[in-house]
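Two proteins were folded this term; both appear here.
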Amino acid sequence: MGNQVITDIDIIKPDSAKACETQLTVDQNTGKSKKLYIESYGCQMNFSDSEIVVSILKYHDFDTTSVIEEADVVFLNTCSIRDNAEQTIRKRLKKIDLLKNKKPELTVGVLGCMAERLKTQLLEEEKIVDLVAGPDAYRDLPKLISKVDSGQKAINTFLSREETYADISPVRLNSNGISAFISIMRGCDNMCTFCVVPFTRGRERSRDPHSIIKEAQELVDKGYKEVTLLGQNVDSYKWNKKDESANFAQLLEMVAEISPELRVRFSTSHPKDITDEVLHTIAKYENICNYIHLPVQSGNNRILDRMNRTYTREWYLNRVEAIRRIVGKDCGISSDMIVGFCSETEEEHQETISLMREVKYIYSYMFFYSERPGTLAEKKFEDDVPLEVKKRRLQEIMALQKEHSHYNTRKDVGKTFRVLIEGVSKKNNNQWKARTSHSTIVVFDKEDSKAGEYVNVKVNSCTDSTLLGQIVK
């Protein structure tokens, strides 16, 4: 293995343009006989799932490697939310094929949402792929790998109504030893017409809160200072067993009470489900960050109805008002937005812009509509907004969001924040990077501080999206 080095760096590493949504394996050398390499694409749930995969396979004689040519097994944990995400994976497989030509015994597997959506079709279209496993099939990976070793293709895309991997302690990949994700639920019951997630991740089911608290406590015991609770819709978290029950507000409180030094974040909230009880819980605990990702998707009621978002513009703005009244005016709110959805008119697009002006998000994830096969929108509606119109509308909301991001950072100049040092700034090795409670990035000179410490930072200036400050005693 060590002699089969490929010199083309584009084969070794994924497209650098995708670095913001790509997570790579780290090296773990405990003397096991086989090496696993994983690239994770898309959402934080995929990154969390890859940590579960590594945990499962470490008990089947696998260490991990960050060098793809050293691997015996290569997995791509994939996203299917947009066509561009799937095309990224197909391009990556073509590069990995160059490696497999030199190393025919290499096992190549596709995991996650793209695997679940395409199933056997993926094996037929991408000859390099030996193994396909959906998000609920990771316990079966050792058997699937053995099947490939015997010369067969292997697939399991069974979606479970019960699997939560609650008993598996994830192996933290690329961990800074400070922040970690904890998956609290899986799947989604919201049938948004544009979305593939209910079809690729299955029905919604919540994880036992005792296992969540146990995982969080173990992280604290290991020195972690921040956890992010993950779910497609955390506000619909609901667990019942005999005489016990818990909703999301109660779970959030249980995690916050583990330690006042443990920062708690969560993602993602749904506007139809976020309750005043959750907001009061955030306000009650200083260690629950004052930040909520609350995707609106559109500011127009007809489009929201077509998207099956099950709330109105008025309801959404009511929730924003409640956040600022209960949690505080400085609570950070971010969003997702889709322009150019089926039959969206110019006037309806302007309603999204007017809602943005009213809320002034700290940042947003913004896209033009990309029809996904198998979704309700693909079956029911015509994708009739011209591409050039979609692109123009996207540029308009991106420009407006840039204004609002700068508006929010300017408000913080002169303020002092208690922040958790997460690591080294990407642009300057002599500076630290941290986030405020409302999730704005702040960078500052290291001085005598260390990663993982809480420090007070006074903001002296800002860019469009970043605060620039200095440590104060």
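Next, the second protein.
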Amino acid sequence: MQLKHVPRFGTKYWTALILASIFGANTGDFLSDVMKLGHIAGLPFLAVLFALVIIVERFDSSEHTAYFWSAIVIIRTSATNIGDIGHDLHLRAPLTLSAFAIALFITVLSWQASARANKPKTGQGSTAISTVPVYWFAMLLAGALGTVLGDYFSFGLKLGTLRSTLTLSIPLALALSFGGTLLRTQLLYYFLTVVLIRAAGTAAGDFAAHTIGLKLSTLVSGIVFVATLALWRQEARSESETELSGT
């Protein structure tokens, strides 16, 4: 993905990722439950949609982050259903968590080793992550792992969706507050934070769905997510116009 389409690290980046996680948790359940596609049948359609976003993005020279966030939501939606496949197979949560955690760990370590050898653009002082193909695969694994973790807290540990959201938000807040440059320079720390976002987002999405209904929850979380991005884009345009008028 072109660098001009990738958002920079910062408070807005992580806030948008949290909102995308909640929205993606709802869209995943919406596809499987409301549209009756189950946890597997919808995945090929999501894969095609993701491919279209990546292909179209290559030919767009304008500067915005719509493609990135569209891809994130598609990946998150897919990860929700992939994570829920374990329920269909009656697999124990610890086993599923271990499998996804190991896969993510190996993926990130391999990527990190390759990145160091090839000296990529990202690294110390970088303000955006390199969205190479392995990045999206790692995001998919992190999303699936976060889905299983969120469900485990809510239903396996019987904390309920609200208490799980609050409980998982604590380590997430600590990771974001004290991560500092680790969030930009260390892939393992970055994806650990993403897993926590996905886990808390899963619990939050389920809480909203159980409270106001899945359809309305999907609509509301989607509107909040898109409206937030639109507001930030408008603010950026206003700031840019102000700078130009002042020169």
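Residues 214-246 form the longest helix (33 residues). The radius of gyration is 18 Å. These notes refer to the second protein only.
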